[in-house]
Structures are given as structure tokens and as C-alpha cells.
Amino acid sequence: MKSWLEISEGALRANYRALVRAAAAGGGGSMPVLAVVKARAYGHGADLCAGVLASAGAPWLGVADAEEGVLVRRALDGTVGAGKVKPGVLSQPEILSNPESLVGPESLVGPEILVMCGLLPEDAEAIVSHGLTPVVWSPDQLGWLERARGGVSQISVHLEVDTGMSRQGAVAGARLGLFLDRLAASASVRLGGVLTHFASAEVSGSPLTELQRGRFEAALEQIAARELRPEWIHAGNTSTIDEAGSIPWLRRMAGLYGARPMLRAGLALYGYCLPLKGAQSAVRDHLRPVLAWRSRVLAIEDVPRGATIGYNATFVAPRAMRLGLLPVGYADGLRRELSASDARAGGWVMIRGRRARIVGRISMNLTTVDLSSIPEAAPGDEATLLGEGVSAEDHARLAETIPYEILCGLRARPRLTA
Ligand SMILES: *Cc1c(COP(=O)(O)O)cnc(C)c1O
């Protein structure tokens, strides 16, 4: 194995618990937190993380698409079979395919699965047959689901309201009206939830968030005017929980319409959050990274002063150096922006507890690091690319991006550890 990801089950659970505690902010009791495991759980492995989060009590898991939803459903069924989640109770697809056994939604094992990033006509069948809940906003989508219904009597959907992202969702007013008309005409689709997504949650007091809340309120009113009573009203992301200002509002909205409020979180589950503007972070101090990315030193080489290192010789050894070769590169998600030249220091890895700086350009599958100040390093030594001493925030800073992109760009295989 050239490199691997060690996924700390303990850290993932602890981060989830920290989010649940923070979601109770502003009084009014606890609020469920949907755990987002889309994009292979931000690179951490959706199947592994889904099992851990389910057993930690997450009532909902969020995936990007139907394919990911099926993967997570199978992983959960495996976990249930293995007795890790309440044993002996039927999973949702079993209940759906065997209505006789239905003893009410309370009997569902583990979390429901929300497919958050839209669907295509050909996804509808997998969604229905695996008991996934799609986020929808257009009349067409309802038609696709109805046609894929098979023997399932009720398909629950969550309606996204576009309040300012112009990405997905129906805008309150005429567009939402058309959707609600179509929904009213459906015998098999039921409105299980309503959601929106904030564009600037990390900015405390953002006027855009204010505007988005107002538009969401208008949509909720329009939905209630049609006598629809969704069970869930949800919004937010890591920064919404971290910034906390929208939590009492969400609780109030849910109260007003007799629904259950819910927050959603992804990044913080994995131990990171964006810096907040204008507010104290509620969760940062309670999070720790879940993932360590490790590899091994393939070879060690002494090179003389003047040796050229890597493509285009952007780095020339200023003195005799000892170089370590690592079997990872940008194909594995080690960002090429972490390369080092004569003019610019790049990233580093940790070997024997010390920094070994990357030298020269990162190649597709190989990277050279400076071991000159770690004389005891030996071939086969473990190298930490992300973990103690080097964070996804460090990589994000060097690559001029966000920790999200660093994490979900990792390609190495995840393994669960304690
Ligand atoms: C990805 C996503 C989230 C999670 O966002 P984080 O910032 O990672 O917490 C929440 N809601 C929706 C709709 C998403 O797509």
C-alpha cells in the first residue's frame, strides 16, 4: 500500500457529539444534526463513516447522489446485520418492500438517507427501491419518482427552496406554486421535509443570510397555505452551527409549522471548520481531525550541492542534501501547489515527528522530501502527509483553497482505526 488514510472512529464520534451539543445553542433543547457523508465522506469513506455516524445516533445521513445513497444504504444494512446498530429491526427498504411488516417509522433502523444534489430520470428507481429520500424542487422530478414507484405506496421527498444560491431549489412564488400544484396532484409523493442552504453562513450577521431567511419564511408560509405539513424543516452547514445565530430562528420556524428542526453538518464531522467572520466559534475547540494520511519512505538518496530536483529543475540543492522519496503525488490528492522551488518554500510531511520539507515539484506518483535534518530516517519509515503536525488547513493555505477541497481530493484507501 503506497499510502492510506487512518480514520479515527473515536474522533468522528466525538466531533458528531460536539456538533449535537452546539446545535442545542440558544436554549430550547436538542436539535437533530444530519451528518453529511457526500463526496466519499469528504474523502474519509462514506461506507465506513456512515456506520460510525449511525451508531453515534445520527438520524439522517446526507449523500450527493443516488449511487452514493445505495452504497451507504448497503453499508448500513451490513452494520445492522453485524449488530452494531439496534439489531433485529427491519431497515427501511425491507419495510418498503414488505408493508405487512410496517410498524411505523419509529421502527426504522438507523438513519434515513437524504440525496442532496439532485437526480436524473434514471436515478429514480434506485432512490425508490433503496428507500432513499431525494431533495427535489421541480415538477418533472416528481414525475420520474412516480414512474419508478413500483409497489411502494409512498415516496417521501424533501423540497429545497432556493433562497439565494441560484443552484438548486424552487424560488418562493410562482415557481414554488407550480411545484406545489404538481405535488398536490400526486397520490404517491409526500412532502417529508423542506430545506434551504445558506451562501454565507460563516459571516456573522450577513445581510445575505438575513435575506435568505426571509425568503425561506415566505416559502414556508406558501407551503403551509396549501395545508402541507412537512415533518422536517432544515438548513445550515458547519458554519451555521459554529456561528449559532440562525439556530434559534430555525427552531422558531419549525415550531411555527409543527415540524422538527434540523441542522446539517459535513466539514466539522471531519474535524475542520472555516474561520468565522464576526463571531466566536462555538465548535472549533471541540473538533479534532478524523483522518491521518500516511505513506512510507521508498528510498533515501544523498545528493551533492547543485543537484537538480524534480521536473524543470525548479529546485537546485543549495548544499549536499539527503532526500527521501515518497510513493505519493498529485494523483493521490497531494496538491501540486505544495511543490517547492528555489524561490518558494512548499509543503512538508512529518517523519519521526519532525518536518521534512517537500523539495522540487510534486510528480504524479512521487514526491521528494528533505531528510537532511533527520539523519536517523530510514527507508520504510512512516511519513505523515496529513495528521499530527500537518493539517488540511496547512494544505489549503498553500494550495489557496479550502480544507473541503483538500479532503475530498484524497484518493487513498480509508481504514477504520480506534
Ligand atoms: C455539503 C452540504 C452541507 C454540509 O456543509 P458543511 O459546510 O460541510 O457542513 C449541508 N447542506 C447541504 C445541502 C450540502 O450540500
Written description of the protein model:
This protein has 418 residues and is an alpha/beta fold. Helix content is 30%, strand content 21%. The chain has 13 helices and 19 strands. It has helices spanning 9-23, 38-42, 46-55, 66-81, 92-97, 124-129, 139-147, 174-184, 207-224, 238-243, 247-256, 392-398, 403-408, and strands at 3-8, 33-36, 60-63, 112-115, 133-136, 155-160, 189-195, 232-235, 260-265, 291-296, 299-303, 308-309, 315-316, 321-326, 348-351, 354-357, 367-370, 382-386, 413-417. Strands 2-3-4-5-6-7-8-9 form an eight-stranded parallel barrel, surrounded by five helices. The protein has a six-stranded mixed beta sheet with strand order 16-15-18-10-1-19. The model is unreliable at 81-108 (pLDDT under 50). Residues 36, 38, 116, 197, 237-238, 264-267 line the site of pyridoxal-5'-phosphate (PLP).
Which structural class fits the helix and strand makeup?
alpha/beta
Low-confidence stretches at least 5 residues in length (pLDDT < 50)?
Answer: 81-108
Task: Please state roughly what percent of the residues sit in beta strands, choosing from under 5%, 5-15%, 15-25%, 25-35%, 35-45% or over 45%.
Answer: 15-25%
Helix content: 25-40%
Q: Report the mean per-residue pLDDT as an integer.
A: 93
**Which overall shape is indicated by the principal axes computed on the Cα atoms?**
elongated
Radius of gyration: 24 Å
In total, the number of strands is: 19
Could you give a short account of the major beta sheet? Answer: 8 strands, parallel, barrel
**End-to-end Cα distance:** 20 Å
